[in-house]
Design brief:
Length: 166
């Protein structure tokens, strides 16, 4: 009887802690440690991983950083090379010093075309390439020698990719 009472008390305590978010925090910590181990081994260097509120942040020992899962326009890094797109709803974003990708929903074709014009005005017109069919559109170009952008549009979704080549 005493063992059953102790077991019941422990279960109630764990349930209460889980309700307070402790379980989520422990799960995040374990996931971070596993990811750090795998990424560190794969890259042969230390990688710090922080999982919080649906976002995953990576930081390398060289100071490079990348965030995945943002639902707002990324600040800093490669994202600073392109004009901010203020329409639609950001579904996800990843950003680092050398590359960024932003996926935006609820975008109409006219907004896509206006953004392509903004890119051209911002200097993304070197080695330009475009494609269009009934269902999708794409524009890519360089700004100078080193900064490349590609914008894909289909349905109501636009994906912007920017890469710094140097």
């Amino acid at each position: 009887m005493k063992k059953a009472l102790v077991l019941l008390s422990v279960l109630l305590l764990l349930s209460a802690l889980a309700g307070c978010g402790i379980n989520k925090k422990i799960s995040e910590e374990v996931s971070e440690q596993i990811a750090e181990g795998i990424l560190g081994e794969a890259g042969k260097g230390k990688v710090d991983v922080d999982i919080e509120d649906g976002k995953i942040k990576f930081k390398g020992e060289d100071g490079s950083e990348m965030t995945i899962g943002e639902d707002k326009w990324p600040q800093g890094g490669a994202a600073d090379q392109i004009p901010e797109f203020a329409k639609g709803k950001i579904a996800s974003a990843s950003n680092s010093a050398k590359a960024a990708m932003i996926q935006i929903g609820e975008v109409d074709e006219q907004e896509y075309l206006q953004y392509v014009e903004e890119l051209k005005k911002a200097g993304f017109d070197r080695n330009a390439s475009s494609y269009a069919d009934d269902q999708s559109k794409m524009y890519s170009a360089f700004k100078g020698e080193d900064v490349w952008v590609m914008v894909n549009y289909g349905g109501d979704t636009m994906i912007i990719t920017v890469e710094i080549k140097s």
